[in-house]
Amino acid sequence: MRLLISLALLSFFLVSPVPQSTEAPTGFDNKSNGVADDTTHQADQTKFDEVEQLSDGLGPLYNAQSCRECHQSPVSGAASQVTELRVGHQGPDGHFRNPEIPIAHGTEVIAGRSLVNDRAICPNASFPNSEIQERVPETETIRTFRLSLNLLGDGFVEAVSDQTLIDLAQQQCKSSHRKICGQILQVPIVEAPGQMSVGRFGWKDQHASLLSFAADAYLNEMGITNRLQPDEVTKLCNTASEPNDTPGQDGLSDIDHFARFIRATKAPARDSELANSMAAKKGNGLFDKIGCGTCHTETLTTAPAGTKINGGTFTIPTALGSIAFHPYGDFLMHDVGTGDGILQATREHYGNKVFQMMSGYLSKQDFESSRNKIRTAPLWGVRLRPRLMHDGASLTLRDAILRHRGEASHVSQQFDKLKRDEQEAIIQFLKSL
Question: pTM of the prediction?
Answer without folding.
Answer: 0.94
